[in-house]
Amino acid sequence: MKDLIAIINPKSGTNNHSCATALIDKVVDKSRFNVALRYVENPGDAKRFAQEAVTHGCYGVIAVGGDGTVNGAASGLVNSDVALAVVPCGSGNGLARHLHIPLKMENALKVVNQDLVDSFDYCTLNDVPFMCTCGMGFDAQVAYDFQLDGKRGFPTYVKTALEDYLKFKPQEYKIDIDGRSFTEKAFVIAFGNAAQYGNNGFIAPHASMQDGKVDMTVISPFHVLEVPIMGLSLFFKKIDLNHCVNIYRATTFRIHRFEPGPMHIDGDPVDMPCDVEVKCHPRGIKIFTPGLGENNL
Question: Which parts of the sequence belong to the DAGKc domain (predicted)?
């Protein structure tokens, strides 16, 4: 019998989690897995529960929630033998979409029964782990304002992005890539371990979670008339072809900005200092997958 801990966040995204406990009981194979339930009530709970699973030698953790809950659970599992199962119930679900994990709760739980576990890269922002993306600039400001809004979901995110675009001012950044430094004014600097933010918004369309590297997407300031083209290129996996975009790939990036401010880690806003380091940690997290590869190019 393999022991699992299910970490359930009843407040994630736009979904109702009242049926999560019943579905876990119904779907997960009781002849092979013993599941203990934990419920997220406070910040840090998901990571603490995941660390509990590591301490007790559990086989896996089932994270039921949005990207923040998944990131919290994953942060407690990095560099351990405990595998992460993702049951996506958020507004973006970036990791699930990247690994072709079903978005329907019942089907995502069936992935646990398949028991196909693989090792993937994770990244850190100043030693704070993330699974999919982190960033600074416009996307970080949107993440910050999106959190302040009482409503969740993709329409609210789009509304917030449009409002922020009208008032956002790009900054200059000093960028170091493997010892090579340059300064660039940027609208967005995004780092992709996975290919997308979530909602199939592909900010780093060629990023892989198994190549030992992280992709950095730098979007230069662009005219308001180019907003529709930029948006379409994001959702059609073509942002790397846009003339305002450069994508770099390395194991470590160091960024200096001239004032501290918000960044986002897997969509959740955080305050960060002027100097930040983004680093890839190869094959440091184990994840249950449906065995369909990665949703990248």
Answer: 1-129
